[in-house]
Model the fold of this input.
Amino acid sequence: MRLRIGCSREEQERIDLLCDYMGEYLDAKIISELCERGFFVKPASIHHHGQYNGALFDHSFAVTKTLVELTKKLGLEWELERSPYIVGMFHDLCKLDNYVKRHKDEAWEYNNATLLPGHGEKSVILAQHLLPLTEEEVLCIRWHMGAFDSKDNWNSYGRACTEYPNVLYTHTADMIAARIKGV
Done:
């Protein structure tokens, strides 16, 4: 699938990557929504990994590819074939409104005026606006931060890993992409 949206060359290159890699799981409406929300231009962070324009997509793409590789190499089983793609690509949707530019040529700033707080929960909510998620997908996205989540939540995280082992592999893919691959 190739989708042309009125956007910059860099955005279009990222859209083409997305369409080539997982276009069968997405439609034009989802990709258009991601583009409108800045998914292809925003940073993944302004203090940690991915402190550059487009890094939100680049990091999400790296997590997706890593999760798909882990799935193949380890023989992971998912409820739906699409799940490692959807989970990897949408795990950090919470960042869509976390970073703003006051003026076009200025640096990204953290937005303290978001409507939804949170990280994993917020990503689940935003992903569910794009497409219906299975319980496994919800839990993988919710708990992708693993033990970096609040200590108060560790028991719930552990139960989620026991019920759906791919929760742990999602966190692992996120860490590989951010800490080992540096994306």
User: Anything to note?
Assistant: The radius of gyration is 16 Å. Residues 7 and 36 are 10 Å apart (CA to CA). The chain is about 50% helix and 0% strand. The helical segments are 9-22, 28-37, 55-74, 83-90, 120-130, 135-142, 154-163, 166-180.
